[in-house]
Design brief:
single chain; IpaB EvcA family protein
Length: about 325
């Protein structure tokens, strides 16, 4: 394990996590790889009870990479919405792909906050910007004229890069446009959509995630590629007012009998779809066939939202910014 001294800005982020987390936080550098580029898969966060370890596996830009992971962690601890995966397609390989892509889209929205904070702390230097472009190029090949089956990944990667560069590095943006013209054009539209109402709170983050899930699928369908269906597959933490918590479930959510299954029971699951935006907000395991009756639905629909979330041990976020972990 490498002994690398992190700068004061990163130390301040570690301290901020320490202040919010009831336990110990540390950053570990594993190995001595220096690829010469930066990419989000160069770090991971591992939690073991009251120990959080941020593991860095590439030493090309340790302060950038560590701060990126720490800021994601801070967003979680400060009560921003999270993505959960409680459904199964019945195919493990497909599940992994759907979870990876759902997480990537979620992260793209979160990166509005992460990148802004990194820039505010001076952690994104011209050297890091150059390494980021190399990371993009290490992830996706230039578009072939005839097209191929990598456009979904290109669209995600280029959109994330636009969030990273913003309007500050025209040379890098021009390179993206030259190498990935079709993905760049589509990503630019999604970027413009997201920037119309940038993330400034848990509520606006959830709204942006849902907009991106919809917009991304619309683009894939325009390319005649299979959509990801993250509005059904991925559960996003609800952001609710105190008034909404007191309302009956039927007033806020619609129970949808999904084609996807509950991994525990292997039966088709019921998904709680937010009536306002169509997003999966919770998942209920289907009862045994003898109990799968209208009374089952009536009982759920007549609960208050707060009662149901308490029963499900489903976290939610109050519009005032506080989080309820519900166990």
């Amino acid at each position: 394990m490498q002994n690398i001294e992190l700068n004061d800005s990163v130390q301040s982020l570690i301290n901020a996590v320490d202040d919010l987390f009831d336990g110990k936080v540390e950053v570990q550098f594993i190995g001595d790889l220096q690829s010469g580029y930066v990419r989000h898969d160069q770090a991971q966060t591992v939690q073991d009870k009251k120990q959080i370890t941020v593991q860095i596996s590439d030493l090309s830009a340790p302060n950038y990479t560590a701060s990126h992971e720490l800021l994601h962690l801070l967003m979680t601890l400060r009560g921003f919405p999270q993505a959960y995966f409680a459904l199964s397609s019945g195919n493990d390989e497909l599940n992994q792909q759907l979870m990876m892509m759902g997480t990537e889209l979620y992260d793209i929205v979160a990166h509005q906050v992460v990148v802004s904070e990194q820039r505010r702390h001076g952690l994104i230097t011209p050297e890091v910007e150059a390494m980021y472009l190399k990371g993009v190029q290490a992830t996706i090949d230039p578009e072939p004229e005839a097209g191929d089956d990598r456009m979904t990944l290109r669209l995600m990667t280029v959109l994330d890069a636009l969030i990273f560069y913003g309007t500050g590095n025209q040379q890098a943006v021009d390179q993206l446009q030259a190498d990935y013209p079709k993905a760049f054009a589509a990503a630019s539209k999604l970027y413009t959509m997201l920037m119309e109402k940038p993330v400034s709170s848990p509520f606006t983050m959830r709204r942006s995630i849902v907009k991106l899930f919809k917009g991304f699928d619309n683009q894939l369908e325009a390319w005649q590629l299979p959509p990801l269906h993250n509005q059904e597959f991925t559960t996003i933490t609800s952001v609710l007012s105190k008034r909404q918590l007191r309302l009956e479930v039927r007033q806020i959510f619609e129970l949808f009998h999904s084609e996807m299954i509950d991994p525990a029971t292997k039966r088709r699951a019921y998904v709680g779809i937010n009536r306002a935006d169509g997003q999966n907000s919770f998942v209920i395991a289907a009862p045994a066939p003898k109990d799968d009756t209208p009374d089952f639905f009536k009982a759920i629909y007549s609960l208050s939202v707060e009662e149901l979330f308490h029963q499900l041990e489903m976290p939610y976020i109050l519009r005032d910014g506080s989080a309820n972990q519900n166990g």
